[in-house]
Predict the structure.
Amino acid sequence: MSQFQLTFFFVISPTVVLLLCRKFQPLNKLGAVIICYGIGIALGNSDLLVDGSFSLQEKIAEISVALAMPLLLFSLDIKKWVTHAGPALISMGLATFSVVVVTTLAFFSIQGRVPNDWHLVGMAVGVYTGGTPNVAAIKSALQVDTTTFLVFHTYDTLISALYIVFFLTVAQKVFNRFLPKYNWAKKADGADGIAPVHSEEIDSYAGMLEKKTMFGLAKAMLLSLAIGVLAVGIGEMVPEAVAASVIVISLTSLGIGFSFVPAVRDIKKTFQLGMYYILIFCIVVGSMANVRKLMAPNYPVLFFIVTVIFGSVLLHALLCRLAKIDTDTFLITSTAAICSPPFVPAVAGALKNKEVLLSGITTGIIGYAVGNYLGISLAHAVNRLF
């Protein structure tokens, strides 16, 4: 495969994946992110890649994340969310606090047993307060080894699948035993009404090719590109050791800053376009993995991830009991934090409570915004202190 063919494959493959997910329900349940990783791994361990492909793969991965981050954040309406969030905001704060505390404690179980153990701390905090976009950005910011990233993501996918099955089945009944039940009468007055990205579902890519939508997305792309150039310029002004982290934080900050501009915030489908670039990232990173290195079980990493996911959920539940947060709000914000917004509609459906859908999606997007700051900061903190 020539470099042109490889680039074309990376760029167009997510379109094919999304179309297949839309047509076949089993693929849709598996998820576009996982399928893209699988395609990448299959490509990377085939004979299709030629010598010299690795540098191209690295460049595409870095560019896709740089373009994705502002696009994912443009659609935030932080003022409205903070004004009306209520219990959802408190619960998301408690979820984030729980992830930070448990991850810090779990770090000592892998300290000295895993190369660059502090990298796992950053990725864990990023992915369990936001999602794949955060861990992708943190991989770049901390310059995480690709194999380490794939090992982490493989175990994360496995354990997160168990988590989501529990939340889709019996979690509501279990947590209703010691958390207040959702108060329908109180919510009926709209006090918890929150505006998400738009009224559309967060994983809806339909309509992106309409002329009016494409015109808006073109403007958003130019702005995202300008932000990327500015962020790189800022990164060149600081020492090389922290340049990557500064670039990612600059991308996040500028993306949030432009979300306060109504003309930018109201552009439709910017979040979906950002996720498209993340899917490109997933295929590229998967293609950089060596499957043989993934075959040997890495028990310290597995134990670390199990501890962080289920330990933080339990701590979050205990804190919600103290704060008198209801079960449905707890479950939907936990889903938004641990598994990211695309999983929120499924859990809201299992809860038979669409009223919490907006809270879950919006808190998850806020998680995208704060995940980079927390992940990068905590990773550097444990590296210096321990």
